[in-house]
Specification:
This protein is an alpha+beta fold and 392 residues long. It has two domains: 248 residues, FAD/NAD(P)-binding domain; 124 residues, no CATH class. The chain is built from 13 helices and 19 strands. Helix 1 links the parallel strand 1 and strand 2. Helix 1 packs parallel to helix 13 and helix 4 crosses helix 13.
Length: 392
């Protein structure tokens, strides 16, 4: 029986292991941490968004310039396949109003437990606390509690993640190992990241509040979502969706009233103000909550007094910031193994029978089900090709 080693136990690695084991390959998973799927479990803490049910063209478009590269993999294991796979693991799903698909239990732990049972039934071996260090004499080497261990593999799937959330296992340490092998790699960069903002004391009482029903724009990237005012700056799906624009150097602009035109806002603000303060006038005229008004004042004091310029500001509020939060806080990372470094099967050209999957590959997409789906898809793709090559 041929032997494949999967290094890393996120969704991409576990999927590659499952596919190869189902094809009759002996599989060993090696994980540096004491338990598997740590980042996967963290992703499910606030509700595990497995995939997104939408038009295929729109789904692929979320991956921007990486779409042509990933398209065959997403076609082979896309949103429908993800839902079927989860259903086979007896996980009931539901689709939200925006098309996002979640387990009814919302958490990742029931799905992961069922998945590990399946892998065990398929004969997959899992070694934890095995940290990969590279190769020696064509064997994979690991630092383990029992000392240095080595494994000879007929195929290797590298599923080591990106370079964010190091405490969960994605520390990017593999980058230097592959660089020494002459691979073409792109530097890591934060993706789906929060914004650093040095708030004034005035904002203290609003920290932790979600600014809802806004539109965000940074360069070519736009989002209709929300932003949470955190102690370190701004977080949330709306911010993450446009963080790439910030990373590329574009200004960030918020529309605090996306359902109203400038003319409509001007008309509302032109009503007699009486003795009301400007803040109260904005609140009453536009039914704007205190956190939105506080953000408006924080970014643009002194506010223009005329209705028309104030309306224009509300529709396009420039956000002063100190760039993105540190990369280790980012939900995902861009950079890694380039398309040029791998063949169509995701086998690394410079390393025969060695495949790269998941966030190790240089692609990025917004949150909302795209990230996990692509990790599963790349794992399945490499697993199928590796098994076919071994079985041939």
């Amino acid at each position: 029986m041929k032997h494949a080693v999967v290094i890393g136990s996120g969704p991409a690695g576990l999927m590659a292991a499952e596919v190869m084991a189902q094809a009759g390959v002996k599989v060993t998973i090696c994980e540096a941490k004491p338990s598997v799927g740590r980042k996967f479990l963290m992703a499910g803490k606030s509700g595990l968004n497995l995939t997104k049910q939408e038009d295929t063209k729109a789904f692929h478009a979320a991956f921007t310039e990486s779409s042509p590269w990933l398209a065959p993999m997403l076609n082979a294991f896309g949103p429908d396949a993800v839902q079927t796979w989860a259903g086979d693991l007896e996980q009931e799903l539901f689709t939200g109003t925006t098309g996002r698909v979640f387990p009814k239990k919302m958490k990742a732990s029931p799905l992961l437990r069922a998945w590990l049972v399946r892998l065990n039934e398929l004969g997959v071996t899992i070694n934890t606390r095995w940290r990969w260090t590279g190769w020696q004499d064509a064997k994979l080497t690991f630092d383990t509690p029992e000392g240095v261990q080595s494994i000879e593999a007929d195929a290797t799937v590298l599923a080591l993640g990106g370079a964010s959330w190091q405490r969960l296992g994605s520390d990017g340490a593999w980058y230097s190992v592959l660089l020494e092998k002459g691979l073409r790699l792109n530097p890591f960069a934060p993706a789906n990241a929060g914004l650093s903002v040095a708030w004034s004391p005035y904002m203290e009482k609003h920290l932790g509040t979600a600014i809802k029903s806004i539109s965000l724009t940074s360069g070519p990237y736009t989002s209709r979502g929300e932003a949470v005012l955190s102690r370190g700056g701004m977080e949330g799906g709306g911010i993450y969706s446009v963080s790439r624009g910030v990373r590329e150097g574009h200004p960030l602009v918020l529309d605090l009233a996306p359902d109203l035109t400038v003319a409509a806002i001007t008309q509302k603000l032109s009503k007699p103000r009486g003795k009301a303060t400007l803040t109260n006038h904005i609140r009453k005229s536009l039914k704007m909550d205190a956190a939105k008004i506080a953000l408006l004042q924080e970014m643009a004091t002194p506010l223009p007094k005329g209705p028309a310029p104030l309306a224009a500001l509300i529709k396009a509020l420039p956000i002063r910031h100190d760039g993105l939060r540190p990369m280790d806080e980012a939900i995902s990372t861009a950079g890694g193994v380039t398309q040029a470094a791998a063949d169509e099967a995701l086998m690394i050209k410079a390393l025969p029978n060695t495949y790269a999957v998941g966030e190790m590959l240089d692609w990025e997409a917004p949150t909302g089900g795209y990230l996990i789906t692509a990790c599963l898809a790349t794992g399945a793709w490499a697993g199928h090709h590796a098994a076919a090559r071994l079985n041939a």
